Amino acid sequence: MKKIIIGNFKMNTVPSEFKPYAMTLATKIKGTKNEVVICPPFTHLSMAREILSGTQVLYGAQNLAEEERGEFTGEISASMLKDLGTSYVIVGHSERRGKFKETDKVVNKKIKTALANGIKVVLCVGENLQTKTSKQANAFVRKQLEEALRGLFENELESVVVAYEPIWASGTGKAISNKDIVKMVETIRNFVGELYSEKAGKNLNVLYGGSVSLSNYKKIMSIDCIDGVVIGGASLDVDNFALICKEKY
Known about the structure:
Shape: globular
Helix content: 40-55%
Order of helices and strands: EHEHEHEHHEHHEHHEHEH
Low-confidence stretches: none
CATH topology: TIM Barrel
Structural class: alpha/beta
Strand content: 15-25%
CATH architecture: Alpha-Beta Barrel
Number of helices: 11
CATH superfamily: Aldolase class I
Distance between the termini: 5 Å
Oligomer: single chain
Mean pLDDT: 96
Radius of gyration: 17 Å
């Protein structure tokens, strides 16, 4: 079964390191049936277009501005990303929400801006440890989804991928139990079904991200309701990342 595999580089690597990485990855994953996307820093995107155009490796951005243009020094607009050939953009990552205080309203605006420019969205949702411990995780994620998808039409969901990334599991080196992943994925699908239709919930692409690595990806990918994974630090090793991307699921 085809899976979506996304590598999020975060603020790692410099352009000179990225060039051999991209060339190697494109060579190693030839023939894969999976959809492979890498999201390097903004500084790498021009090189990504040069190296990866015509290969099986798609590339995306880690963020975008909610405004299309104007006096926003240091920001990157959706049209700029589109001009560079980006296929995806990550929106609502927990690091953006936490460290940069991005609200659900901002996330919603960014999604609409990306979709208006023909860029697919990876919408990140997930709870912290306190929310999980207080047994409010389902309600928390449902609210994130409700606010993020506000004003979107059902057909636009075809260009939205939801990534469940529990904040409390990120960076621990261990993925959460398959049972817990299934419960949250079912919550996500059911809620989208309530917002739109049963078909929309069923057809939604839902990924898991949270310390996915070479040692646990097979266990995660064995979950029927999961459509793929978002990989952070483990994606920086091109050989290991290529193995995950080439796997037949």
